[in-house]
Amino acid sequence: MEACMGVEKEVERVINKLNNLKDNMETGIDEQIAAIEKLQRDIAEDTEGGANISSAQRDMVRQVSSKVNQSVTKIATEHRDLHSAVSKVGKAIDRNFVSDFDSTSREDVFSGPSKEHLLTEVILQHLYREGRLDISEALSRECGITEYQDQKEPFLELNKILEALKLRDLGPALEWVARNREALNMRGTTLLFSQAGGRPSVQQKSSLELRLHKLKFVDLLRQGSKMEAIKYARQNFPSFVYGQEREVQSLMGAVMYSGPALEQSPYGELLSPAQWQETADLFLRDACALLGLSMESPLTVAVNAGCKALPALLNIKQVMQQRQVSAVWNAKDELPIEIELGGECRYHSVFACPILRQQVSDNNPPMKMVCGHVISRDALAKLAQGHKLKCPYCPLEQNPADARQIFF
To answer: How many Cβ atoms sit within 10 Å of the Cβ of residue 274?
Structure first.
C-alpha cells in the first residue's frame, strides 16, 4: 500500500504540473496574440499609409518580440519540468515495485487438482459476494465448474437487500428477517428471561430486527408523522420490550421531538447516516453467519494480508539471497520472520512452543504431556531419551508416547 501511495504522489505532481502548463500556455498564447494585434494596430495608425517605420515603432517591435521570447522560454522551461516529473514516475515505479514477486511464493502451493479446485471455489464465492454474477458465470463456464451454481442465489438476494438499504428501502430486509427470525434468534446475543410452564427459561433474540424497525420508526418521526410512528411502535416493538427495553424506551422518548425538531433534540444521533451503515453491516454479518460464511470474503482477507506482508518478505528474501541462506525459507512450512498484520487480521489464537519458540503448525502440532504441560512435537522429540522424557517445567518423568496432540 505504501508503494502505491508513493507512486500516486508522483502521478499527482505530474497531473498538477500538466494542468498548470496547460493554463499557462493558454494564457501566454492569448497574451502574445493580443500584444501582436495591438502592435499591428499601433504601427498602422502611426505610419498613416507610409512605408517607412520610425525608430519608436522599432522599439515597440523589439519590446513585443522580447515579451514573446520570454513567454516562449517560460513555456519551454515548464515543459522540461513536466518531462522531469514524468520520468520520476517511472523511477518511483521501479523503486517501489519489484517484478520478481515469484521469489516470495512457492510453486507447490496451488499445485494439484484439489488445490486448484479450492482456489476456483474461493474466487467464485468472492464474485458471488460482490454480485458479479456475469463474471462468475463466465468463469464457471470456462472452467467447466457447475456444482457451485446453487450458491449464487443466496448471494443474489443478499446483494439486492444491501442495495435496497443503501437506497433506504427497508422492505426487502424486513421480509428476509421475518423469514429467518427463528434462525437469527438462535444466533442472537441478547438474553430474554421469561416464564415457560412455571419455570424460568432463557431465550436469545437477534438485535437486527429491532434495528430495522428502529430505522423505520425514526424515519416516520423525521417526516413528522407522530401518530403513524406510535402506531408502528405498538405493532412491532412489544416483542422486544423484554431484554431490549432500554432501546425501546429511548425510541419512545424521541416521539416528543417529532418533525424538524428531532435533529436538534437529544435524540438527534438517531438521524445519523451511520445508523444505516451499522445496520447494513449487522445484516451482512448475520446473513453470512446463517450461510456458514465469514463476514469478509476470504479472498479479500488473503489479498489484503499479502499486500501488507509482501514488502517485508521481499526485503528478507533479498537479504537471505545475499547471505546465501535462501534454503532456510523453504525448509519449514512457516515464514522466516514474524509479520504484524494488525488486529483486523487476527481470527484465532496462536500457540508458540515455549521450548523452541516457534509457532506450531500442522507438521509440528502442540502435544500435551501427562503432567499437563504443552510443547511442540519437535521439542518433544528433542527432549525424549528413548522411552523416557523429563518435563522441562516439572520433575515428572514420563513416556513420550503418552503425549497427546491437542487442537485449539
So the answer is: 9
